[in-house]
Write a structure and sequence with these properties.
Length: 326
């Protein structure tokens, strides 16, 4: 069991497969001339499996693959297949652009649920936000996954003045479609142009939805980062992930491995523990994991409080989201 000094049991590992991506979401990528990590510095497929096994032996029963875009990695299918043999619930977070190439692999790996990111339902805004003209592909792949019996959660980063006017378009999508929309409060990372006035908060999101719909609160699962709701009569549901206004740190069960094999005990942690170098040198990994978790801060990596209105993105010491793995 991996337990921290706040008595939180950690059974959920998020593994970033790469910091490479085929989209350029401005809130995630640090800057135009960002150089992706060379393949030799990334965890190789066998190293990912070796590290994952150590976590699983300590009680991890859920693994999420993320990135960058996990499915741009050439050996993504091999990694998915190998991890699916472990006694874990395996899933991934993806931008959806490559999913049509992975239908069989997902089935083979028994993946029943996916998080797919889509911040707008307008093709021109998608191009503006991601600098790639791929809206239709992502939208079609979401439908393809649903048609294949995979539960789809759509991640929408809610940003004031950018897509807040589409919140009810997303809610309307849940009317006939059994889809789960997750509005995520915009978070600050290195170089991501975050300012506090761009955060569209949980309260503002609910208010916007309630202007048009009658909503009911759903029961949240233990360790759930999302506050879940349904519009009465709709086939799908929605949720808000309120990292900025109401963090869910007290029930945190998550650990992260960056694509270059560094363990982060929190999305906002400053410290990183280099598991990959230790593995390559044949050193013991478990004490490093325990040490990292032992120093986990109570809340938000110890970096900020929930009154974020006076926060400046430069005050946060962290990598960009694309290099951490969302
Ligand atoms: N490429 C995949 C994708 O886009 O789903 C996986 C990696 S991405 C970093 C994981 C999630 O982090 C996405 O849902 C993305 O929208 C979210 N994300 C990235 N930057 C964010 C930010 N600054 N605030 C909130 N969510 C963010
Ligand atoms: Fe790529 Fe996902 Fe980041 Fe967008 S959010 S740039 S798709 S890693």
């Amino acid at each position: 069991m991996i337990i921290d000094s706040h008595n939180r049991k950690h059974n959920y590992l998020r593994i970033s497969l790469t910091d490479n991506c085929n989209l350029r979401c401005f809130y995630c990528m640090p800057e135009e001339e960002y150089v992706f990590t060379p393949a030799s510095q990334l965890m190789q497929a066998d190293e990912i499996l070796s590290l994952a096994k150590i976590f699983v032996a300590e009680g991890v029963d859920k693994i999420r693959l993320t990135g960058g875009e996990p499915l741009v990695r050439k050996d993504a299918a091999e990694i998915i297949r190998s991890l699916s043999k472990l006694p874990v619930s395996l899933t991934l977070t993806t931008n959806g652009t490559r999913l049509h190439e992975f239908v069989d692999v997902l089935k083979e790996a028994n993946i029943h649920s996916l998080n797919i990111s889509l911040d707008t339902l307008q093709a021109d805004k998608f191009l503006l936000m991601t600098r790639r003209n791929q809206f239709q592909l992502v939208y079609d792949n979401i439908q393809l996954m649903i048609a294949n019996g995979i539960k789809v959660k759509v991640n929408v980063v809610a940003m004031n003045g950018l897509n807040d006017n589409e919140i009810n378009d997303f809610i309307e999508w849940t009317k006939e479609t059994p889809i789960h929309i997750r509005f995520i409060e915009f978070m600050p990372f290195d170089g991501n142009k975050w300012t506090s006035n761009k955060v569209f908060t949980w309260q503002q999101i609910l208010q916007r939805v309630e202007e048009k719909y009658t909503i009911q609160k759903l029961t949240d699962h233990a360790n759930d980062t999302a506050k879940n709701y349904i519009v009465s009569g709709h086939a799908g549901t929605f949720a808000v992930i309120s990292t900025m206004t109401s963090p869910f740190c007290s029930g945190c069960n998550r650990m992260r491995l960056t694509a270059d094999g560094k363990m982060k005990n929190c999305l906002f942690s400053v410290e990183e523990t280099d598991l990959l170098s230790a593995l390559r040198k044949g050193e013991k990994i478990l004490p490093l994991i325990q040490q990292s978790i032992g120093s986990k801060a109570k809340e938000l990596g110890g970096q900020f409080k929930t009154d974020f209105t006076h926060l400046h993105a430069e005050d946060i010491h962290n990598r960009s989201m694309i290099t951490i793995g969302g």
